[in-house]
Amino acid sequence: MQSKTFKRFYKQAGIAEVEGGFAVRLDGRPIKTPAGRALVVPSAALAEAIAAEWNEQGETVRPATMPMMQLAATAIDRVEPERPAILEQLRKYAATDLVCYHADFPPDLAERQRAGWQPLLDWVAAELGARLVVTESILAVEQPQEALAALAARLEGHDTWRLAALQLTCAATGSLVLAVALTEGRLDAEATFQLSQLDETYQREKWGDDEEAAERRAALERDVASAARLLALL
Question: Are residues 46 and 158 in the same domain?
Answer without folding.
Answer: no
